[in-house]
């Protein structure tokens, strides 16, 4: 029995297979409508996340399966002091697979130790969120046709942005990938990523402070939110924030096939006017997220691809 | 692609068709058990409403479809500052149709601008609640056999009662309809309805302060709740409230085929003893609400009537 | 139409039939996958209980049915002042059967008076929780092969433990049953159970203060949580609590076929090390809970056993 706890749990080959399955699902959705008939997914969200939860639920329903679970810790046994290990033992009696989001780092790992069913980490604190990374990979591969030989810009809060760290860790496994890291000084990528992932793997990258200067060279731009509360003072925030807001004007500096990704939710870091740009891929990304989760559920449940 | 945002979005002919379909569903429920197989309804309730949410869910399940969503804003992305427009773009990737309740007027309209799927307004603040109006219309037509040539009493809080305003706006399109508006002075119908809807359409109506006096002339009595907090002072409330409580004694003054409707939930404005009266139609109304929502979902999804 | 409000609503013969059906379900699960196609279960949880709610939902889904409802009172019409009677009248329009948990004693009974569909009491305050009792009975019968001629130890909070009271009331109907009641003096079984159930039925029982002394004689040990807040003072709690914590060391005193049950959630009254003991049956119990609820739903809906 396998779990998905960390974006690197799957080898490059396994990710290739998963993305190929997701692509086949995208192209032949009705053929998958019953492959999980009679199966149940438990969505255990100790911390609310509408987007991720509904994406998993849509995925399971698209496969013909059922969904049960909880959307916040208030309505869970956690309030009565039950351990995650005990909860997952119980859930193993109720469902065939589960997706778990928990505010505490490592809790998906703890759950997997006790689970009798496959556990998907749907986010554990600031730690990991592997299905977001799989979604990002599928989006890049679908739109650019490849995962290698790409220059990827990552913009915004690179210090605390969990999705950014995971995406870098996943992409360094493909040849010819370069990164442009665009952030204010306060929110630069942490040393653990710069040294242990980028430098250790001899990956070319540059760190810049200005989005405008970087835009022209990128194949993919991955935007994230710059949160006011990350800044030491209001003046710094006001001075810096505009540099990290993507506008129609800025998009003129970008290549005609530079796609914009964003893990969502967005607040104001991409102007609404950009949504109409054909290079805006962040809503398409939400759609790919459903397909990749369908492929993941099938893979972990060892469900055969329909012929 | 069509939405249902306002009770008047459908013409009289379209409402006729919808109610005919709802009636056929009522009479042949099992034939509709699979017409929405593989379809998904998203219930987006930014404000809790058990009754409306479960009615939609029951409707979709009766058609063979699946349901996903959230029951309150706490467990939604709204807490992270996402706009309704962005949320609906995401939901369009997850579901085939959505029903949305939101405390802010006009939010269903905003959602519909961005949605790639049909949006049903399940209540936007004090503004509109069109599926309640469709339910009311189906109840009246089913029980009275017609929507024209009726004297309709509306009793209670006519000032703030959203369902009352919508029902009046919908009923003035049928010939021969008269209204008796029964309320304390503090809660009279607003000018916008009296002048722009009733007088502008030359609809006969009278405003009275006493339920007893009006009862004998009515074909339908639509009760609503009189909330204590609407009154200026406690004495007025105590003095007036009994006039607007329907009792078995009062029902003796009504015609033998005068049906009582209520949008529910009821607090004390209809005495429980009245529930046994065959003219009490408010629970039947809840049942009609499911059929009419089934018909609406089919209509907006352009699902064929089974043969 | 029947309801299940109290563990004693079913006769011994009816429980025999129900447990036989549950056992057949356990052994032939796929045969039951569609017996409730098109049926809907409403889960009305005015008080959160993940375990019980998800067990019901899994049960209904295993039978092919759908589930709708609410997980806490915040998202229910109760907040608008609706009575339980009115809510159940409405729910009767939406679902075929319902499971209701409510903090107030007797509320399931009130609901059943007004319901047009079978009501299952899923816990009403400290009062009754009959499906837990059915689960306990199925666990004992499955593991011990019988419900008669057993010595049953009940340990922990016997004063407030609803499940303990119900299990005693249910087990006294089988011949040859003896009880060993193990608790601190503060948490002894109430007189209502000691006198009206045990003594009135001439059931042999002893009350002891020490788990170690009792363990050797038991066929079944039913553990419950000893909550700190039940004690008059901290010193008493610290002095006493270790006597009521089951450890691997203590398990050496027990018979090789003495099964441990626990209604869960557990906090610390069973050491995690005991989970590996083959006599630990509390997670298996959660699995039996699903089968017995499947049997119950089928029985109340009068669904035929598949051939």
Condensed summary:
The structure is a homotrimer of 307-residue chains. Chain A has 307 residues and is an alpha/beta fold.
- What's the SSE pattern of chain A? HEHEHEHEHEHEHEHEHHEH
Structural class label of chain A: alpha/beta
CATH architecture of the largest domain in chain A: 3-Layer(aba) Sandwich
Arithmetic mean of pLDDT of chain A: 93
Largest protein-protein interface: A-C, 26 and 26 residues
Q: For this entry, what is the oligomeric state of its chains?
A: homotrimer
Helical proportion of chain A, percent range: 25-40%
Could you give the count of β-strands of chain A?
A: 9
How many DSSP helices of chain A? Answer: 11
Low-confidence stretches of chain A: none
CATH class of the largest domain in chain A: Alpha Beta
Radius of gyration of chain A from the CA trace?
Answer: 20 Å
The CATH topology of the largest domain in chain A comes to Rossmann fold
Tell the overall outline of chain A. globular
The domain count of chain A comes to 2
Strand order of the largest sheet of chain A: 7-6-5-8-9
Distance between the termini of chain A: 24 Å
Q: For the report, how would you describe the main beta sheet of chain A?
A: 5 strands, parallel
